Amino acid sequence: MVRPRNFSAGPAQMPEDVLLSAQAEFMDFAGTGMSVLETSHRSAAYRRVIDAAEASLREVMGIPDSYGVLFLQGGATLEFAGIPMNLMRRGRAGHIVSGHFAKVAAEEAARYGSAEILATSEPTGFDRIPDLPAPEAFAGMDYGYICQNNTIYGTMFHGLPDCGGTPLVADVSSCFLSFPLDVTDYGLLFAGAQKNAGPSGVCVLVVDRSLVEAGPALGVCPTYLDYSAQLAKGSMLNTPNTFGIYLCGKVFDWVRGTGGLEAMGERNAEKAALLYGAVDRSDLYRGCAVPSSRSVANVTFRLPTPELEREFVDRAAGQGLVGLAGHRLVGGIRASIYNAVGIDAVRDLVAFMESFELSVTGRSF
Amino acid sequence: MVRPRNFSAGPAQMPEDVLLSAQAEFMDFAGTGMSVLETSHRSAAYRRVIDAAEASLREVMGIPDSYGVLFLQGGATLEFAGIPMNLMRRGRAGHIVSGHFAKVAAEEAARYGSAEILATSEPTGFDRIPDLPAPEAFAGMDYGYICQNNTIYGTMFHGLPDCGGTPLVADVSSCFLSFPLDVTDYGLLFAGAQKNAGPSGVCVLVVDRSLVEAGPALGVCPTYLDYSAQLAKGSMLNTPNTFGIYLCGKVFDWVRGTGGLEAMGERNAEKAALLYGAVDRSDLYRGCAVPSSRSVANVTFRLPTPELEREFVDRAAGQGLVGLAGHRLVGGIRASIYNAVGIDAVRDLVAFMESFELSVTGRSF
């Protein structure tokens, strides 16, 4: 069977080689004769899996020893609480609200301290990254907070805010491993794995150890969410999502073997340029994000009517192009073109967009 | 390759049929041409998976509509915080401390209210279930709390405490689906899946809706842990562990197809009787749990010296009997004989125990 072109926003397409490798050893992992699913997290065989996954991620991202790496459960949503509970020592965070999940994160943080909205693009329907606050705006705060790529709206920060020395916390769920970045620009970054790093059920968190070594800022922090305790236990304070971490490790190895973040960044820029080029040349499709804020990971556009959008999604699915419906909060079309989505898939989508436009308007682009 | 006899305490052996089925459809799930790992949790195909998993569990356990079912992340450990945050409306819980995880749960609950220890077997090294408190001891409390099976020590409640109308909360991680039970005896029960229900990374929680419909007791409860919000969203407040739930559903179907909880209970009793019989007949092995508190899921025993115990574990592994080392807190030998461990595996273990005893003492039993 031909694999569909999967443009889902997450859980999303995974590298075929990773899946085939996991399938091949599904019943006999590391010569144990058992599935990795059946292997104790305390076994030597599994210890090698989680250690190798962390080492591979450290190499891919260039993570220095002064940063810890955690593989947690509960998704980004649980970290929306975990972050203020760990970091809000002075009780203040500065949030930039560039989309739904940025807003939800700020609302969650406000339950644990003062989450001050320093900038928002909500008035324009989150069609852009808002103008960044001046560094002084972060003075006296525990951290500044951004959602670096806004999956729903298809926008992305193309430069980080200057927080004037205050640590920057970033939800990078949908742009994790999408391009090179300097980990030391962040105090903490975290990502739900189900977009670019692996399956759902794992949240990868990279944190400057100095921010958390004193233990959680708030006494109400559940032990599970105590980053210092989790770091001390190597993400094994309790049984982790063993299979999820195993698959993430394979994805990290795949990224390394495919040229690393430099190559990912070039490929993703090329894929995004193809798609945005089609949108811009078209008379039918209208991009949702202002061009200077466009995401390289999620390309969002609209057709003139919801009926046409449904027809677009349905006819695309009939041609093996799946997962193109926009998020239920906004509708429209969204093509998520994460690392595992190849340029051929994007070319197929552009060809479909051309033929669809021709069929609807009698013109193509 | 012959599958080892896997006596791990969790992640533990899974039914071979479940694994083979998952492997067979690993690259083409429900005719989508994609892996279930790549399938959006919002897709119709995945909706059917999670709905069927819940329906299957409801049938297996006889869960009435007045109880909700959740598939959460973070393991039992995260629920040690989630439970008091949701239920401690009056700020008091009555804990029976029968082992390490019962103690940890009480310590975590004490961070959110008054977690009163009504009974403990710590003075005797958790070798038994302590004498149960009188029903009046639970008066005025939000809930009574037990860990129904103590994985580390190999003990199990053979009758539930009478809480005199106060809801009973039970961590059933290592005896989940092991025998028939009446869900309405509990206000809430929960289980890390990695023993009897599926892979690690899923925590199944069954709760009397009336206890949580008013929302969390404590304002500091993270939204992720808000049971009422999770119930309203069908465990999809955010992206769940999609692959883990998919596998749990297959395990629930396997339990149903293998005779349900009645059959599981009979098989488990037979397996446990075989093993305890061997321990009791032997001069070399000494059971850890007092007989009236013995677990049907985890059989713990000791040899005269740690050196002999290491030799036992190593020689057993050489014969394909793996995962027999006791928990690092207590040492000794532990054979976890969950549902997926067949009676043949237990017979092989007993035969090995006989031959090991013969080789050490010159006598067998």
Automatic annotation (TrEMBL), chains A, B:
Belongs to the class-V pyridoxal-phosphate-dependent aminotransferase family. SerC subfamily. It comes from the Bacteria. It is found in: Cytoplasm. It comes from Granulimonas faecalis. Residues 6-345 form the Aminotransferase class V domain. This is Phosphoserine aminotransferase. GO terms for molecular function: O-phospho-L-serine:2-oxoglutarate aminotransferase activity; pyridoxal phosphate binding. One of its GO terms (cellular component) is cytoplasm.
